[in-house]
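QA checklist item 7 of 12: single-chain prediction sanity check.
[x] sequence parsed
[x] length recorded as 160
[x] structure emitted
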Amino acid sequence: MKRIAVVPGSFDPVTLGHLDVIERAARIFDELHVLVVHNPDKSALLPMPQRVSLLERSIADGGLPDNIVVAQWNVGLLVDYCTDVGASVLVKGIRSQVDVAYETPMAIMNRSLAGVETVFLLPDPAHAHVSSSLVRQVAALGGDVSPYVPHVVATFLQEG
């Protein structure tokens, strides 16, 4: 039986920390769906198709394993997507205790709703301080985000 997992996120934009978690998860599971989701609590900088495109290009340019599927999910519960693709695990990168406090109730609810377990992966220490929100803020103020995002994203943000 294939071990299928889902890494959900807004990826607005994708960071090197995201890619680190994606690469490590892809080595653990037979098939990994990286799912760009709409978060109603956040105001997105990039439209969904742009986030998907930058994520696909970042994965390809980064030489990540070929068992990765990039998809998007706009409506419905995350566990519905998991059920649709046969995934029994969600993978979440966590940077701090704040992330743990935020993610734990959702993990319990997802297990309760659909039997989908959540696995937390700690970041590479080099990326532990980086978030998409911080990258957006630095980029908006003209700062150099190239140490924190894939090259394709840095180029896009500098040109945009």
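[x] summary fact logged: The beta strands are 4-9, 31-37, 68-73, 89-93, 117-121.
[ ] second reviewer sign-off
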